[in-house]
Amino acid sequence: MDCLKYDVIIIGTGISGLFTALNIDKRKNILMLTKKALGSGSSELAQGGIVSCIDKDSHYKDTLIAGSYYNEKDAIITLQDESEDSINKLIELGVDFDKDESGNFLYTKEGGHSNARILHHKDATGKEIIRALTDKVRERKNIKVLENTSVIDILSKKEINAVISIGDSLKIFYAKSVVIATGGIGQVYKNTTNPLDITGDGIAIASRAGINICDMEFVQFHPTGMYSVDEERRTLISEAVRGEGAVLRNIKGERFMEKYHEMKELAPRDIVSISIFKELIETNSDYIFLDVTHLDKDFIKNRFPNIYEKCLSLGIDISKDYVKVSPTQHYLMGGIETNLNGRTNLNGIFACGECARTGVHGANRLASNSLLEGIVFANRISREINSISFSEASISKEDLEKDLKLYKGKFNNFNCILDLDDIKDNIKEIMEKYVGVIKNDENLTRSLDTINKIKQSLENNLKLSKDYFEVINIVTVSKLIIEGAIKRKENIGAHFKADLRRDCIVR
């Protein structure tokens, strides 16, 4: 039984968690806990790029339009004001953004953007940022990383916070400051672009701890996930591909986006996904086509080398063939409610990255704003933590051992006989079928009833294991999403219910 003290505990080692750690005072001892390997998660899969606010007025407008004006305006302004400093820090840490022959940064354009303002590293921007940040974290002597460790709960006790985890054994760690940076909720759905370990853990843990959660109904479905009936994680075809000229066609080979929006393929993601969904219904199909065959082959191979090679490995030469795509769960705009400094309603607990709801994105995220949000608010959290004194937290080792013993004791009288894999698959089917791009209250209500019964069954069959907590986290997050969707009575952004009156549709 380990009881260890740190100045800061960071849960998650994606871009937000890593950037937070690297900007904290080197005199502070930091523990980073990650479910898989250092740097794993959705961050390394980010293809398109990171917004550079070189044109603040139009970027501000684009962000509001994409978010259906549900955004927190102060959060957008904060994002913009601190974007240059945060991006420069990335560059100082070794991130290599693409440049032209004269050494000037290259910018691309994505859906919802009125101008080309997105920095990128080919079509693997997230991977490049993770490479640079993990290299620096490994060099820092004040940062300890525990891999293959699942955090299962947080206990808040006056001036300190305890983190319960399962790795090779049950352990408790504590710190004055805890940063939740666990990413999104993708594996709540059957089809997602997120890795297999992204199960909404941070949001579920925060909810159990009494931390405010909001806007969970705003789930973004990326318009162009590569269609597959077999893959557990769908391959994303970056929005930047459409930014460079790709078009969408239905199974008849017809372009259709001009019917739905003046920006056509470059409309905000919610509009494109809903439009595709309507087209699928009209044509009785499971997918549409992404077409780049009119673009130069060398340009495609140089600009999107990873996408080109991935498709080629599946027998698709995108310079000659259409790619089957369909809307796929990609991102969550809601999550753990924070202020502009990343603080939650519990003292000493912060959140950043996709698991946090800063208010930047509103009801639908503008493409490539997420990486910028992740580093800007991570940096603000670091400043907050740096202002906290080094005084010893007032708790003894004996107290913590007692807490851990009591926590472990809650599971003593249970013997879980449930098929956890079966429950997980059932939840994914429900969420995919009834809580997707277009919903209705009848199906949502029926789904919530099923979820509540599953949750009760799990609570009556406790088990102290990683698998159990992953499933209970999926159930918790599903319940939060459905409850939010039922409660919201207007269509706005990524939230769309078919049974609402037309005059309730915000956009």
Structural descriptors:
single chain; 507 residues; alpha/beta; Flavocytochrome C3, Chain A, domain 1; five-stranded parallel sheet; 36% helix; 16% strand; Fum_R/Succ_DH_flav-like_C_sf; L-aspartate oxidase; FAD; steroid dehydrogenase activity, acting on the CH-CH group of donors; Fum_Rdtase/Succ_DH_flav-like_C
Task: Write a structural description.
With 507 residues, the chain is an alpha/beta fold. It has a domain at 228-328: Succinate dehydrogenase/fumarate reductase flavoprotein, catalytic domain (Flavocytochrome C3, Chain A, domain 1, Alpha-Beta Complex), CATH 3.90.700. The chain is 36% helix and 16% strand. It is built from 15 helices and 18 strands. The strands form five sheets. A five-stranded parallel beta sheet has the order 6-3-2-10-17, covered by helices on one side. Strand 8 and strand 9 form a beta hairpin.
Widest sheet: strand ordering: 6-3-2-10-17
Radius of gyration: 22 Å
Tell me about the largest β-sheet. Answer: 5 strands, parallel
In which range does the helix fraction lie? 25-40%
Task: Determine and state the CATH class of the domain at 228-328.
Answer: Alpha Beta
* Class per helix and strand makeup: alpha/beta
Q: Would you count the extended β strands for me?
A: 18
Low-confidence stretches: 501-507
Mean pLDDT: 94
Please identify, by name, the CATH architecture of the domain at 228-328. Answer: Alpha-Beta Complex
Tally of separate helices:
15
CATH fold assignment of the domain at 228-328: Flavocytochrome C3, Chain A, domain 1
Percent of residues in beta strands: 15-25%
CATH superfamily of the domain at 228-328: Succinate dehydrogenase/fumarate reductase flavoprotein, catalytic domain
Regarding quaternary structure, how should these chains be classified? single chain
